[in-house]
Amino acid sequence: MAITDTLGSTDIIALAKKFLTGNYTRYPVALVRGEGSWVWDAEGNRYLDFFPGWGCGILGHCPPKVVQAVQEQVATLIHVPNTWYTEAQALLGQALSERSDFGGQSFFCNSGTEANEAAIKLARLNGKPKGRYKIITFTGGFHGRTMGSLTATAQPKYHAGVEPMLPGFNYAPFGNLDAVAKLIDNETAAIMLEPIQGEGGINLPPAGFIEGLRALCDQHGLLLIFDEVQTGMGRTGKWYAHQHWGVLPDIVTLAKALAGGVAMGGLMAKPEIAEKLKPGTHAATFGGNPLAARAALATIETIEEEGLLERAVQIGEKFHERFTALKAKCPLILDVRVKGCMIGVELAMEGAPAVQACLEKGLLINCTHNTTIRLLPAMNLADEQIDEGCDIIDSVLMGMKA
Ligand SMILES: Cc1ncc(COP(=O)(O)O)c(C=O)c1O
Asked: What is the 3 state secondary structure string of 270-333?
C-alpha cells in the first residue's frame, strides 16, 4: 500500500491508536522526514533532535553515505540467509574487529536485546562443561526486553507481570566490587554490564570498578561481557566505551548506532570464546544481511572520514560547560554526567514536564528514570545547534519549580 503523504498528524495518530498496540507512550507528533539533527512533522514543523532514534541516529537522520549504501544495496541484493557468505558481512566483521583491542569475531542479529540473548547463550555454552551458568548483572542496568535480557535487567519494574524470570541471574549494586565478589560461586559463568549505564541515567562507573571487574573475572575464570548497545560505535569518543579503561572484554554487544539507524545488532567475542558458537547453537534469519551490513560499513567510514570520535569528545565538553553553568544558577539541577555524546542531567523533579516544554519549543529530548534528562545527540551535531538547544533547555528549566 502506498504512503499517501497527505495524512496530517491527527489522522496518523487516530489510525495508530486504532491499529497499533498501546505499549508505547507517544507524543502527539507524527514525524515524516529527517536530515542530520533536524526532523519535520506532518505539518512541516521543524524540531532539533538531541535524541535521534533513541541512540540509533549517531550520525543524525539520513546520513548521506548510509543512504547511498542502502540505496545501492537494496537494488542489488536485499537479503540472503547465513547459509551463504556475503562480502559486506565479512568486511563488517573485519572493521569491528580491527577497531577492538581483542581480535573479536562477530555474530550479527537485529537488535540490542537479541545481541544480549546471544551473549547470555554464549556465556552458558562456554561455562557448561564446568557447570557454570550464572550471570551477575547490576542494578539500574538495562539489557533489553526479551526474557533473557530482561532477566539480566536488574529493575523489578520491568519484570512486573511477566514473572517468573529465568534462573541463574544475580544482581549487584553498580559500582560495588565487594558485592560482586560475594555473589561469585562455582556456578558463576560471567559478569555482564554496560560500562556506562544509559537507561539507568548516564551513570559513570566509579574509579577502579571496570578494572576491578576484570581482575575478579581473571581470578575466578569468568567472562566479562560489556553491553555496548548504547555506548558503542564511538558515542563516548572511543569506538567502544570500555577502551576508556584499557580493559579487555571477552564479549561485547552492539546495536542501536551500529548501522547508522538501520536495524542491526551483534556481538563480538574473543576467538577462543567465539568458537563455542558452533553450527546449530545459535542463529538469526535476518542477522548481518547485506543491507544492514552496508549501512554499518558506511557508518564506520563516515565516523572516520569526518573525525567524529574527536568531535564526540568536543560535543561532550561543550554540553558539560553549558549544563555546569546552568547548574550554578538553577537549583533544579542536582548533577550533570557526561561522556562524549552521552549526557545526563539529574533534576530534583520529574523530567517529563521539561521534555514536554522543550517539545513545544521545537527541541526533542528524553527523560529516563523519571528525573534524569538524557541526551544522545549525533556525533556531527554543530556548535550552533548545541547552543540553540541548550538555550531552550536553559529557559525551560529556569522557568520551572520543583
Ligand atoms: C544498553 C542497552 N542494551 C540493550 C538495549 C536493548 O536494545 P533493543 O531495544 O534494540 O532491543 C538497550 C536499549 O535501550 C540498551 O540501552
From this structure: CHHHHCCCCCCCCCCCCCCCHHHHHHHHHHHHHHHHCCHHHHHHHHHHHHHHHHHHHHHHCCCE
Pocket-forming residues, ligand 1, beta carbon under 6 Å: 111-113, 116, 142-144, 194, 198-199, 227, 229-230, 255
DSSP labels, 154-216: B-HHHHTTS----SSEEEE-TT-HHHHHHH--TTEEEEEE-SSBTTTTSBPPPTTHHHHHHHH
Place 402 in a pLDDT band, splitting at 50, 70 and 90. confident
How is residue 256 annotated by DSSP? G
Per the residue annotation, which of 107, 174, 227, 250 is the catalytic one?
227
pLDDT tens for each residue of 198-241: 999 999 999 999 999 999 999 999 999 999 999 999 999 999 99
Selection from 344, 387, 348, 380 nearest residue 365 by Cα: 344
Question: Is the model's pLDDT at 354 over the cut of 90?
Answer: yes
227 is a catalytic site residue: yes
Asked if omega into 164 is within 30° of 0 (cis), the reply is: yes
Set 142, 169, 174, 209: catalytic member: 142
Whole-structure pTM value: 0.98
